[in-house]
Amino acid sequence: MEGDIAQMGQFIGAGLAGIGSGAAAIGVGHVAGNFLAGALRNPSAAASQTATLFIGIAFAEALGIFSFLVALLLMFAV
Amino acid sequence: MATEAQGAEAAGNAPGMPQLDFSTFPNQIFWLLVTLVVIYLVLNKVALPRIASVLSERQGTIANDLAAAEELKGKAGEAEEAYKKALADARAEANRIIADAKAEIQKDLDAATEKADAEIAAKSAESEKRIGEIRASAMENVEAVAKDTAIEVVRAVLPAAEDASAVDKAVDQRLKG
Amino acid sequence: MATEAEGGGIKIDPMGQFVVEPLFGGDHVAWYTPTNVTLWMAITVLAVIVLLVLGTRGRAIVPSRSQSVAELTYGFIHQMIEDVAGKDGLKYFPYIMTLFLFIVFGNTLGLLPTAFTTTSHLAVTGVLALLVFVTVTVIGFVKNGASFLSLFWVSAAPLALRPVLAVIELISYFVRPVSHSVRLMGNMMAGHAVIKVFAGFAGALGLGAVFPVVAIVAIYGLEVMVAFVQAYVFTILTCVYLKDALHPHH
After folding, report:
1. Which helix (H) or strand (E) holds C20?
2. What is the pTM of this model?
């Protein structure tokens, strides 16, 4: 393990890519929080919008998954 | 690094991530397609038509039950209507009978009243007549008494004056005047 | 099996569970070789048959428990297609139902200990997403002809912006299968890998393994939810793409 600059770069890169997961978590929290705020304002319209909620969460989460994937690629595939 | 971390286990797979081991892709894709086709056939031939038929059957049953309930409700409404009509008829009949009875009684009453009135009128006419007679006879008596009295008075005062007819004439004149 | 505390430290191999292996020995994986992929896909098919065919064999007006589940699944997907893609999307109901059932059973069966998660492989989700992509594109062109291209021409935007938007829309259209597949595969793989990492800690900690085990239980609960949510998301996105193909003028 010692003295392997390339491996160090991989691990650092993987760690940096992991930040993206946290950013995606912020995004998902935004989506869910805003949905809840809107749903409490107008509960009668909430049920019809759950599909939109899940689509929004999925889009936000997909990008976090991408960064997670980049981390995994750096760790195991490069 | 990858081979080191994986140890001897993954020795056969060059990349660390099995997801990127392209040598297994044809295998997975083949079995995936087989699986999808099997699931699709099972769903399309057996499962979905069956569930759809069960659901529509249930829908039909529910609709039938609702229709039957509706029909029964209609019948109940009709029965209520009939009951109300019968009640109204009975009431009208009763009213009619009461009115008839009243009219009959009124008629009887009228007849009786009339009869009574006639009797009363007859009786009062008779009484009138008798009163008249009595009055007339009383008048006559008064006349006679007055004439007699006058004759006696005249005789007592003027014994010479024996003329009764003159006295009668005078009394008559006085009674009339 | 992947973790040994030996010598210099912990060796955790979160990826070992995703390795495709032949069922009956040997190490060459040809396209026809029965592998653990085959096994778990067969179990998926079996689960679908048990739920939807055996579960509904009573055909009862008042459903049994399994029949209720089957009917709920049916109604759920049916409703979703009708809500998102419209009435004319119902023609593709069996196809979307197939996708949903395969993914939901692949995800949940993969959560069984020592199971192989078929939906955590790019080859599988990629083919699923490409099938959706190709089908939807073909449907779009068959139903609408060349006017399907108006999907990329945003008539609500100012004229000067439209070419730029068209390029962006075009790119986002072609990125769809990528995000569609990687989302599912990434979610599945991430959860399983995290559980494996915690399991590795538990193996190394001895008595202190209580904490990782509690964490595994919590993550497992989350993963059960993710398994259903990702199947739902994959299906509803398919419906959204189908809607774009059926009614490109928005």
Report:
1. none
2. 0.73
